Amino acid sequence: MPTLTTEIKYNGDRRRFTELVEDAYAVLVNSLCHIAKCSKLDLDKLGYFSERMIEHLPAITSLVLHSERASRLHSSLLYKCALSLTNLHITTIDANMIFLDLEGNSVVYPNLKCLQIHNDYMEIEDSVSLPEAVPFPKLKSLGVYSVFPFTDDATFQADSNSLEYLNIYADYETVTMLNNSRRFQNIAKHLKKVVIQEEEDIDGNGLSDVPKTIMDKFIAKLAGSAHYLGLLATPVATSFIDVATVQHHNFENTRILDVRHTPLSLFKVLQLLKALPSLSKLFCGNGYLGSELDCMPFVELPDYVANTYGNSGKCLYELRIKYIRYLSDMISAEYVMLLALASPKVCLLGATEATALAHQTEMTRMLHRGPFSKYASQLRRLIE
Q: Is the entire prediction scored with pTM above 0.90?
């Protein structure tokens, strides 16, 4: 490791001495970036940083910035790095600072591909109305881990096929705004991975307050092309399931569906498998048979599922049910075996080792006698 040395003599001019120290520190940071071949700057880890040091920085491609409110230092730093940045991770309650300098001029990030915005504070500034200039023409990944801070859709002015990953906390206002956005409609056609979580707006309105017609329209627009859907807000997940299974909207691109906070009956799972023929992974909440199957005689269930849903889940190989361990061993085993009749590749449901062993014991018993015995050769993979 090369040794960097510098000598600074104090001549009684405190201001000039401070400037010399800052210049030396800036040169050191610059040198370390080049030695490590690193173009990432994390101000929290750096410990000390001043506006004077900005001019010495190399081209920064990745910036991690924690700023409670806009300051000249942080605004100058963003302006300096805007042309070279490809990744920006910022924690702030003043989202204006990302797009506008302190004079109110637009800041454009022509090469930015990944933007993450966090809000660690209990309050949030007034929502931001973005400038007309396209701030992120090449943005591929957008994560907003707090209240969505924008009142309009200028974030989605990127090339229509640019944005591939979207992770946002949505509230009533966000759904309404995006639902009415032509820009977002064009962007949504090219999304590959979508994660939606819930956040109440300033008036306390959550996603459960969004009218069903608006939510269904939002889901149909949002989920049409995505391969991965993480619908971690129950109102969104419920709407998606309804749009897919009842309204028969085409979601043939969906490969992975994560609705881990939403309970799903076996009947709903079977309907989903039939509606999503390309589904390979499904993560859901509490598993139960559901009233539609509860009212059917037990001896008729295997034949009904095999005849109605047989091979519907031909691509499904992983199903994780968050709370299946709370069902009785017999009901859990019945659930697994009925599902397996519709999903010839499913072997594991993500149960704990102890639960899985109890399931296998019960399934072994049920395969030797009763209505499942005629499907023993098909289901034997579950206990081997």
A: no
